Automatic annotation (TrEMBL):
Residues 1-27 form the signal peptide. Pfam families: SLH. Transmembrane segments: none annotated. Residues 27-90, 158-221, 283-346, 408-471 form the SLH domain. InterPro entries: SLH_dom. Keywords: Signal. This is S-layer homology domain-containing protein. The keyword Signal applies.
Length: 471
């Protein structure tokens, strides 16, 4: 599998959950009309009226309908607001990259990808279309609330379950904790019915109970308390979406973190996890620089350059001051905002996006800051045709390319070229910015890599220099 650069934030699911039980979403305009014989009626109605769950129609919930594995995953993804907003993929992910039985064209594909990338604990042989059992859903939900709800580990009071012998031994711990948390209850005869298919009503009730437990057991925050190294590392990895990533940094886990040590740890983590693109730093004058450990000075200058930290009004940094949870969170959040707008550039052999293509062209041609009004989908992958057209249009609209007489050449695959791009391609060929293949083809629809695009942009610079008016 290709390497994935994870850059995401996980919202703590301790207050507001937003989820649906099916693929469609409807406004909660009225209570469900098919819950009269459902014990958890009030809970389901409360969830619906809060906009948390919806039904197969605005009026119907289909409480006895069995849930599939895919629907269970969708519940957890939506419950914890998991997303891929800050994820940088080397290649477009597919559900089958993570679950071999998945269908990449299905409604649930994105949910499976999101769950996998966010480290939701799911079996690799998960069958999205298979019915979900009570023990499977309960295990997945409990592991999720413990991970994303930041619940402390507990030693549950072991409850006697009459049908324990029918239970998957790997799920027994989660189910015991689910009973202790009040997420599930045993039947009157002490059974859990682990192998029974879980219904939409039962799943909704478990979600409701989990929400109530999380609301009542939020870890007390102490924003003004100095952060320990363990807490600092946890804050950094969770904010940057690096949970379960192996970041090897030597540090005393119980030491109190200073502004200096936290900033170093944050920047070092960014660099070792390959999240931080190369940037040119102009060192600033720090009035108390003599108090900064020389090994940390580079990281602090980098943090200042990307806007993660700021100097005090008097130009000091206070490197030895202990850092609080509130201050550390603000710094980590500043980094997330920087990463959103400064994605790591694509690898040399990776297809260029339109955003990257525009950036490459404007930088190579010295047009950074110039207002170039060319309509293009910023996230689309660039082809040889689209990149060449964008380059020539940019040259023309910026006034760098004067009117020239072009003698059209025969392009063997000209029928594959968009007629709106043909003029730009002929111009690029005439100026030796691009060349045809030995067989006379141009391969217009082939995605263009950073290496090829850089070479073409450099050819454009040389072509402009060689024009009569520029000699």
């Amino acid at each position: 599998m290709e390497k994935i650069f994870k850059m995401m934030t996980l919202s703590a699911a301790t207050a507001v959950f937003s989820l649906t039980l099916v693929g469609q979403s409807f406004a909660a305009t009225s209570s469900f009309t098919d819950l009269d014989k459902v014990a958890a009626k009030d809970k389901i109605i409360a969830l619906q009226q809060s906009g948390i769950v919806s039904g197969i129609t605005p009026e119907l919930f289909a409480p006895q309908a069995a849930m599939s594995e895919a629907q269970g995953v969708q519940l957890i993804v939506n419950a914890f607001k998991l997303n891929l907003d800050l994820v940088r993929f080397v290649k477009e992910p597919k559900a089958t990259d993570y679950f071999v039985k998945a269908n990449n064209d299905s409604w649930y594909a994105n949910a499976l990808i999101t769950a996998a990338v966010n480290n939701v604990e799911l079996p690799k042989d998960l069958d999205p279309n298979a019915s979900l059992t009570r023990e499977q859903f309960t295990h997945q939900l409990i592991r999720a609330i413990e991970a994303f709800g930041k619940l402390p580990l507990i030693n549950p009071v072991v409850v006697d379950i009459s049908d324990m012998d029918q239970m998957n031994v790997e799920y027994s711990g989660s189910i015991q904790r689910a009973i202790n948390y009040g997420v599930i209850k045993l039947s009157a005869d002490g059974k859990m019915n682990p192998k029974a298919e879980i219904t939409r009503a039962d799943a909704a009730e478990e979600i409701y109970n989990a929400i109530e437990y999380l609301k009542a057991h939020q870890a007390p925050s102490a924003p003004a308390e100095a952060l320990t190294a363990t807490e600092g590392m946890k804050l950094i990895t969770e904010t940057l979406g690096l949970v379960n990533t192996d970041i090897k940094i030597k540090i005393d886990p119980n030491s109190k973190m200073t502004r200096e040590s936290f900033t170093y740890l944050l920047i070092h983590t960014l660099q070792t996890s390959e999240k931080l693109p190369m940037i040119k730093i102009n060192p600033v004058d720090i009035k108390d620089n003599d108090q900064i450990d020389i090994l940390n000075s580079g990281a602090i200058q980098t943090a200042i350059a990307i806007g993660a930290v700021q100097l005090n009004p008097d130009g000091t940094f206070d490197p030895k001051a202990e850092i609080t949870s509130a201050d550390a969170t603000e710094i980590a959040t500043n980094v997330v905002e920087y990463l959103k707008s400064h994605q790591v550039p694509s690898a040399p052999a990776e297809a260029l996006t339109a955003t990257e293509g525009v950036k490459l062209i404007t930088e190579t041609l010295g047009l950074v800051g110039t207002d170039i009004n060319i309509k293009i989908d910023p996230n689309s992958k660039m082809t040889r045709e689209s990149f060449t057209n964008l380059l020539v249009q940019t040259l023309q609209t910026s006034g760098k390319l004067p009117m020239i007489k072009v003698a059209p050449v025969d392009i063997k695959d000209n029928d594959q070229i968009d007629i709106l791009h043909s003029g730009s391609i002929q111009t690029a060929i005439a100026l030796h910015i691009v060349k045809l293949n030995p067989d006379g083809t141009f391969n217009p629809k082939t995605e263009i890599t950073r290496v090829d695009a850089t070479e073409i942009a450099k050819n454009a610079v040389e072509a402009i220099k060689a024009l009569p008016n520029n000699k």
